[in-house]
Amino acid sequence: SALPERRRPGGGRPRYEVVRELGAEEVRWFYREDRKTWKPFIGYDSLRIELAFRALGGGGGGGGAGEPAAVEPVCVRSGLYEVDVASAESYPVYWNQSEKIPVMRGQWFIDGTWQPLEEEESNLIEQEHLNRFKGQQLQESFDMEISKPVDGKEAIHSLKLSRNHVDWHSVDEVYLYSDATTSKIARTVTQKLGFSKASSSGTRLHRGYVEEATLEDKPPQTSHIVFVVHGIGQKMDQGRIIKNTAMMRDTARKVEEKYFSNLATHVEFLPVEWRSKLTLDGDTVDSITPDKVRGLRDMLNSSAMDIMYYTSPLYRDELVKGLQQELNRLYSLFCSRNPEFEEKGGKVSIVSHSLGCVITYDIMTGWNPVRLYEQLLQKEEEELEESWMSYEERRLLEELYLTKQRLREIEERLHELKASTISKPPVLKFKVENFFCMGSPLAVFLALRGIRPGTSGSQDHILPRTICNRLLNIFHPTDPVAYRLEPLILKHYSNISPVQIHWYNTANPLPYEHMKPSFLNPSKEATSAPDPESASAAPSPTTSPVMVRRHYGESITNIGKASILGAASIGKGLGGMLFSRFGRSSATPQTMETGKDGPEGDEKKATTVGTPPLPHSSSGFLEPTVELEHRIDFELREGLVESRYWSAVTSHTAYWSSLDIALFLLTFMYKQDQEETDKSSLDTM
């Protein structure tokens, strides 16, 4: 490219330049989402779209008169979207979206805002400009970039458009004037183009974008992908997880710019929209919902209905498979489009919300209610053997026992044969680095499956580190669906408060691993459910909902508090209803398979559902013997203002746009990347 660069990203333009066709780097492409204003693509994207546009035979001197060549879609916006140049539309790569995103080619721009003129007008002005001024020299004084008043200056050329006209006072003093007679139209045109003021003096136009597009203006390579998983309540609004993920991504971008801009790595968030592919009950549940409560029910349904669906043997497998397949599909698609990701040791984390946490956990650990059922049957057999019975009964039982044993042997041999020919692929195609739960009821599910606190402070007790390196449970203090996980590992953590998540704008916060455990005030501890009726159905005190564990005083208005406690007891009532089958089994504690066998002896001593906590020692709380290797429960701090207006309902969905959470997620993901690079640089030394 021997032609002089017109405007370098940093400086003014070279002098004595001749008017010629716009270079690909001077054109800027824009996209528009949700009918908002046009947003410019970054240089790297814009330049590649423009080159594809020219290959199609559009603009820039155009190709020959032959057939327009078919052009590959252009990958844009960190690889999340593609642009189809021929239809001037953009669409997401990893999820479906009904609304296409229009793109446009900007050649002429409005002074000050640098918003592009609509393409048709722009094309007309550009054509006129080249016809009249091609080959002419631009004025030397242009370095000044000062808009001189042109009121007294004669126009040397003019062009009439449908609602406006353009006057050239010189080669590079071009103004757009509104011809609208009524002020109303003038106003709308003005607003549409973002003029500085609605006056007759006209608006200055610039040819070519304020900044040249370069291939160096490029996003960093993605080194860590985060799958964002929702619960089941997505039937009504399939787009919600996509919007929520977009909120989380935008929030994380802000945090990245502020705190992690010096790192050449990048975290990408991908929505896992798996619910809409499932049929489940069609709309049977919908059709039996009374009309009047639909709005309210939709809100409650997203958590309560999720739980009902998930505990239904009919749908559980469909849900697990649906999510598992979508996770694997997204991972394969991402790797095929980013071949360097795996080579360079790219990492994967999962952020799940609500019931999504439970389904994700079950996929990772391979937990299955059938296993629980088999354990119950075995127990019944053992109990039978101990009871008195007639000779005939015993003979038949022995026969049955031997037959079952034989059946098991045959099954095992068959299994071995199969295993030797085909090795069973792992459920997920990737190892999970961090599993972040938000507003998660996972602890209740685990408690009702019989998991009881042990004696070691390792995460392995509930989620083996071979499956997932780090488990983090995030909740808002008033979220009615969230439960704590730490007391399921070590019982005395029910008296230790969750770690407080730092506010986004805290200067030099203490790193989380250096924060010392602090005790909840045991005298204020509310261990039982707020009303006696639901106490029998209450989960064990170690997992009582987060908001009952804290004494709020006036931080939430009394109405708010009542509704929260109400929601909690609804939750518990539901729990009692839905899990009565498992509830019974959890009253006879058994070790669940959690990858490693928990300490059997301790499990047998575990407290049953609904018993009060162990007596406090004289010092006011249990003597902690063991500490957790890593903290798991993290609680959002309540803002001084927001807390009074937080309701139990909004707190369950307010995780997506929280800067505090975005910073929290990135802190853990970047921390690992930092540690690894530090390690490898030490190794090389």
Structure in words:
GO terms for molecular function: metal ion binding; phospholipase activity. The protein has about 675 residues and is an alpha/beta fold. Among the domains are: about 20-60 and about 70-135 and about 150-205, no CATH class; about 220-285 and about 310-370 and about 425-505 and about 630-675, Rossmann fold (3-Layer(aba) Sandwich). About 35% of the residues lie in helices and about 15% in strands. The chain contains 20 helices and 18 strands. A seven-stranded parallel beta sheet has the order 13-12-14-15-16-18-17, with helices on both faces. Strand 15, helix 12 and strand 16 (about 470-475) form a beta-alpha-beta unit. It is elongated, with a radius of gyration of 32 Å. Residues about 1-15, about 60-65, about 140-145, about 180-185, about 195-200, about 525-545, about 545-620 and about 640-645 have low confidence and may be disordered.
Percent of sequence in beta strands: 5-15%
Which sheet architecture does the biggest sheet show?
7 strands, parallel
- Rounded mean pLDDT is 74
Runs with pLDDT <50, length 5+?
1-16, 61-65, 140-147, 182-186, 194-199, 523-545, 547-622, 640-646
- Counted by DSSP, the helix tally is 20
* CATH topological fold name of the domain at 221-283 and 309-369 and 427-506 and 631-676: Rossmann fold
Secondary-structure-based class equals alpha/beta
How would the global form be characterised? elongated
- Total beta-strand segments: 18
Rg from Cα? 32 Å
Distance between the termini: 43 Å
Strand arrangement within the widest β-sheet reads: 13-12-14-15-16-18-17
Query: Can you name the CATH architecture of the domain at 221-283 and 309-369 and 427-506 and 631-676?
Result: 3-Layer(aba) Sandwich
**What fraction, in percent, of the residue positions are helical?**
25-40%
The CATH class label of the domain at 221-283 and 309-369 and 427-506 and 631-676 is: Alpha Beta
